[in-house]
Amino acid sequence: MGRVLAIDYGTKRTGLAVTDPMQIIASGLTTVNTKELLSFLKDYVSKESVEKIVVGLPKQMDNTASESEVYIQKFLTQLEKSLPEIPVSRIDERFTSKMAFQTMIDSGLKKKQRKNKALIDEISATLILQSYLAGVQ
To answer: Which homologous superfamily is 3-136 in?
Structure first.
């Protein structure tokens, strides 16, 4: 069984999360400069068995696509060319950034630590992955 990797895509930074090999636990992996994302993913997949990639699907409250979906579609095209052997799923990511920020508060992080946007992106990716796992189980 391979890992499932989740992506919270952003135009500047992208948060990544991954499951354990048994696909039970979702953990934050890292935050990557989006310009380096594809090379990071290729390198990661060459070292770890990744069965599926889950990419957040940003939607507005009225269920229409968010303006960032244009950038995500371009990325998905590049991802398909770079890693055609790994299937990609999409999952609604509404509120993940707000939930990530609340998670930071609930876990007792200081105000300065909560301003770390890279950490918010990584936690958001973890929440996307947890949502995916909850729907698969």
So the answer is: YqgF/RNase H-like domain (3.30.420.140)
